[in-house]
Automatic annotation (TrEMBL):
<feature type="domain" description="Major facilitator superfamily (MFS) profile">
    <location>
        <begin position="37"/>
        <end position="503"/>
    </location>
</feature>
<dbReference type="InterPro" id="IPR050327">
    <property type="entry name" value="Proton-linked_MCT"/>
</dbReference>
<keyword id="KW-0812">Transmembrane</keyword>
<feature type="transmembrane region" description="Helical">
    <location>
        <begin position="75"/>
        <end position="96"/>
    </location>
</feature>
<feature type="transmembrane region" description="Helical">
    <location>
        <begin position="103"/>
        <end position="121"/>
    </location>
</feature>
<dbReference type="GO" id="GO:0008028">
    <property type="term" value="F:monocarboxylic acid transmembrane transporter activity"/>
</dbReference>
<dbReference type="GO" id="GO:0016020">
    <property type="term" value="C:membrane"/>
</dbReference>
<dbReference type="InterPro" id="IPR020846">
    <property type="entry name" value="MFS_dom"/>
</dbReference>
<feature type="transmembrane region" description="Helical">
    <location>
        <begin position="415"/>
        <end position="436"/>
    </location>
</feature>
<dbReference type="Pfam" id="PF07690">
    <property type="entry name" value="MFS_1"/>
</dbReference>
<feature type="transmembrane region" description="Helical">
    <location>
        <begin position="389"/>
        <end position="409"/>
    </location>
</feature>
<feature type="transmembrane region" description="Helical">
    <location>
        <begin position="311"/>
        <end position="339"/>
    </location>
</feature>
<protein>
    <submittedName>
        <fullName>MOT14 protein</fullName>
    </submittedName>
</protein>
<dbReference type="InterPro" id="IPR011701">
    <property type="entry name" value="MFS"/>
</dbReference>
<feature type="transmembrane region" description="Helical">
    <location>
        <begin position="479"/>
        <end position="497"/>
    </location>
</feature>
<feature type="transmembrane region" description="Helical">
    <location>
        <begin position="359"/>
        <end position="377"/>
    </location>
</feature>
<feature type="transmembrane region" description="Helical">
    <location>
        <begin position="160"/>
        <end position="180"/>
    </location>
</feature>
Amino acid sequence: MYASREDIGYDFGDDSKVGSKPIKPNPNIDGGWAWMIVLSSFLVHILIMGSQMALGILNMEWLEEFNQSRGLTAWVSSLSMGITLIVGPFIGLFISMCGCRKTAIIGGILNALGWILSAYASNVHYLFLTFGVTAGVGSGMVYLPAVVMVGQYFQKRRALAQGLSTTGTGFGAFLMTALLKYLCTEFGWRNAMFIQGAISLNLCVCGALMRPLSPKDIVSEKYVVRSNSGDNQAKALSRSAETIKSKGVLSEELEKKQEATNEEVLDSVQHIEIGGKSRSRRDMYGLRILKTVSQLTVTVRKGFAMWYSSYFGAASLFTNRVFVAFIIWALFAYSSFVIPFIHLPEIVKQYNLSSQNNIFPLTSIIAIVHIFGKVILGIISDLPCISTWNVFLMANFTLVTCILTLPLMQAYVSLAVVCALIGFSSGYFSLMPVVTEDLVGTKHLANAYGIIICANGISALLGPPFAGWIYDITHKYDFSFYICGLLYMMGIIFLFIQPYIQKKQPREKSTEEAQV
């Protein structure tokens, strides 16, 4: 395992340059406005992820109102949760063109619109479009920028910052469940959704707080002094990152040429505007519109080129094999965390533990410990002598072990212990942006993390129906845990061995060159 994420190199560049250029650090990095970014991300997790975890309240209202099957009605909340994550790669395009702040503000408006339009739903299919798609896309447009901005503003305490911001999911689950339950009781579910839509407009405020850093401050991360570790696996991961960098040199040169050409066009338009002061006011307005359109075209072309090269160009993220293994892991990981929330109530009823579970629900144990798990794992990962990668893998191994052993527990105390371990180990979610950034760098974080949460979204969308299908065949909940747990274990093992394969390949290549 590699020693620390500082060994990987955020810029994929030449290590000989590390520490050679002293740059005055931005006071907002790891401090100052960075903590406002954490607050903004924390509120985003409350309003988006917290609301989605409280959709069970509205699901009961929809069942009663529309008299549709449970399976059909459940697709409303599944669509909303799944689309929030699945649209990640496309939100990366918006971030490349508009930046995190504008993307989040537009997403806040779209999310609020989805909630408000859903208040006028006449059937479940109407909710598919308004709540599942509209509110889901809006949520995705706010969620990804909230994660990316924390990664940009923090270097030394990145894991802790991500842990603090993502605890909003746990707090939001409690707050939004109580709020929606109260609103539905007092005003009915339609007015409750309308009020929730108004509350969701606060996402625009959260987006406004996402003040962008100057490119100099982001690029200056390459001069951060890294520790001298001789760990071979760190070098392997560094090589995988440097591969992306080396393959992206040509595309960056082409981008610079395009920028120079575009600047010439804008300058010519500006000269025409200055020289034409004596012309009529109508002509001046036309020139200003032309200049605005030209600037917008330049921004769109530049953002699309960056987004396209990240996925399909010479510097594609998919050339990093460790990152590809990370995607495969993400396809199986999220469903293993969601399934206990779905099946635990039925398991409790099957074992006649309802009276004890009503006093302190097992799902609440998972949610509460999950909050502490995110913060504690973040603090541990930020220690100089601890590897984020090691903490991430250990948490995953603990979680999959709990998933596989949970069906064997039949007493409330043993179930509570396993659920507490599930909640704590699933705190690795706060480390996912950190590990992603270590693998691909800050520049590619938005597009890379968009792919990861897209894979999580597919897992969240298909995992619960798959578990239900297994139950319909076997009439047992045990097999749902076993099959999903084994698939999850395969993803972890594939992710675990990939860095060793990556380390071995450069050695074989150097041996062949020596023979030649």
